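Long-time lurker. I teach an intro course on protein structure, and each term I like to show students one example going from raw sequence to a predicted 3D structure in token notation. This year I'd like something fresh instead of my usual example. Would anyone be willing to generate the tokens for the chain below so I can use it in lecture? Attribution to the forum is fine with me.
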Amino acid sequence: MARLTHIDDAGRARMVDVSDKPATAREAVASGQVRMAPETLALALSGGGKKGDVRAVAEIAGVMAAKKTAELIPLCHPLSLSKVAVEVAESPDGSGLSVTARVKTTGPTGVEMEALTAVSVACLTLYDMLKAAERGMVIEGVRLVEKTGGASGTWTAGAGTKP
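-- Reply from a regular --
Happy to contribute to a lecture. Here you go:
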């Protein structure tokens, strides 16, 4: 079984020491979805809700969240991010809104958590802004889609379980 990097030999939580790792270009892509009724989706896509353009606000919230990841997840390293792009679009099957985040950095550790945090907060923002229209929306499928860079190289969802 693989050893967990955030647990020391005594079983205590620790921040991983990345000081000896080389700085390399790293990128991560994450995605998620907010499932909703067709009427709620139409309202979201129209940009005419009481709270304004919900997609634009969720995209900004996702960018802001990526930049705050180390403050939210206790053992994450604070990173200098070179790119955060969050896109909210209608799901291909028309069941709601899909969120995709792409995060880049050059450094000694990856940006998977930043991409996942961006998607999670963007989905929560969509829920918050649309809950007056529908409280039964479902946030689902938040996951890492791809990561590149670092010692483990490239990993793509569906191509294997280990990075």
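Some talking points for your students: The CA atoms of residues 5 and 91 lie 35 Å apart. The longest strand covers residues 24-35.
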